[in-house]
Write a structure and sequence with these properties.
It is globular and about 75 Å long. The strands form 6 sheets. Strands 1, 4, 15, 16, 17 and 18 form a 6-stranded mixed β-sheet that branches. The N terminus is likely disordered. With about 375 residues, it is α+β, with helices and mostly antiparallel strands. The protein is built from 9 helices and 19 strands.
Length: about 375
């Protein structure tokens, strides 16, 4: 069915957007981010009114056997220590957009060329930009989540130069690296190349045994970047071990398939499953989008437990929520809460004529249990 043009006039954003439809439009735009990558590794926490947070931390021990008792023996009291807590503060994230007079003039020209109503183009512009704005919020949550997951910390700098640098208190024993300092890859000139004295398969098997048998963790799979997996499957020592295991008559003429190597690692060498992460994002510099460095550190593999969602997304209520609850708002201002957390303000101005939309969210990923993680640094070389 064709869209009616009767609603879309010069004041469309004021006439078409009311308190109810504004929220519906934003919720609909946000639905496309129900599969944002951060949701694979984190769940929303309950919004609070406090920017500071505390997180309990529980040890999962080997259970001490009950003792054999004599008829009149006292029952031994076991140590109940196993809980502690740590804390931090929640950063504020946000951005916005403006549909100004120059934008409106361009939209009006395009509308006349296409035969659409100007107001229709104006509303479509609003919906598209609102969707992109919300996508930017989810990208930031994903970026912080993957950074924390792969390094054990979050390091960001605000637009006013304030540093947000938080390290989770993960014990040093949970960080591992190759034996004898034999990094899997090294720098050679202007390239990163494989180190043919390293043995990645042995390292991974040693780490798995150490994390589960020595540290008694419940970790059962590895999270890693797509780039590191490709480098691992092409490592000459890994390929040589794969070929040798097959007892080929003429191994020099064997064409190795990466999928075959991967299957061999899992099925024959008992390497845990890989959760492969491929995430790209951008930030803005001088008004231009610039590609970010990978959020998930490509040097690292992370051992996690499939029993545990790694993060809780701690969050705080925006002051916009309090403003909404007070009521009595100007007709030119519209407020909405997306997912009851992302606060959005839409303002229409007449001098100069423009529509301003911005959003804010207080949120950060926090490990649900820092004792159930192992971080392996496979190599340290950078270009």
């Amino acid at each position: 069915m064709a869209r009616s043009n009767t609603l879309y006039q010069i004041g469309s954003l004021r006439n078409y957007l009311n308190a109810e439809s504004f929220g519906v439009i934003l919720d609909t735009a946000n639905e496309k981010y129900n599969t944002a990558i951060w949701r694979r590794y984190a769940q929303w926490g309950r919004p609070t009114d406090d920017r500071e947070w505390k997180q309990g931390n529980k040890k999962i021990p080997i259970l001490v056997r009950a003792s054999i008792l004599g008829t009149h023996s006292p029952k031994p009291m076991r140590n109940t220590v196993g809980w502690n807590a740590y804390g931090g503060s929640i950063p504020k994230i946000g951005h916005g957009f403006t549909i100004d007079q120059d934008d409106m003039l361009e939209l009006r020209k395009v509308a006349r060329l296409t035969g659409d109503a100007f107001g229709l183009s104006l509303v479509d512009c609003f919906v598209q930009n609102a969707s992109n704005m919300l996508g930017g919020i989810h990208n930031q949550l994903s970026h912080m989540t993957l950074q924390a997951l792969s390094t054990g910390g979050i390091k960001e700098v605000s637009i006013d130069g304030t540093s947000y640098d938080f390290r989770f208190p993960i014990e040093d024993s949970h960080f591992v690296s190759p034996d004898d300092g034999k990094d899997w890859f090294v720098k050679s000139g202007s390239k990163i190349v494989a180190n043919d004295t390293a043995d990645p398969i042995k390292d991974i098997k040693d780490w798995q045994e150490y994390l589960t048998d020595t540290l008694n963790l419940t970790v059962d799979h590895w999270k890693m970047s797509k780039k590191l997996l490709e480098m691992l499957l092409s490592h000459p020592v890994v390929v040589a071990n794969f070929v040798a295991s097959k007892n080929y008559y003429n191994p020099d003429n064997v064409k190795v398939n990466k999928q075959d190597v991967l299957n061999w690692m899992h099925n024959d060498m008992y390497i845990w499953p890989f959760d492969v992460i491929d995430f790209k994002s951008q930030h803005e510099e001088d008004g231009k989008a610039v590609n970010d460095a990978p959020a998930f550190d490509q040097h690292n593999m992370v051992a996690c437990s499939s029993r545990i969602v790694p993060f809780e997304m701690k969050c705080m209520n925006s002051i916009y929520k309090d403003r909404m609850e007070q009521g009595g708002m100007n007709a030119s201002n519209l407020y909405s809460l997306v997912e009851q957390r992302i606060a959005i303000l839409n303002t229409w101005e007449e001098r100069p004529i423009q529509n301003i939309v911005d959003c804010e969210l207080y949120a950060a990923p926090v490990f649900t249990n820092i004792r159930e993680i192992g971080i392996a640094t496979c190599y340290t070389a950078t270009l």
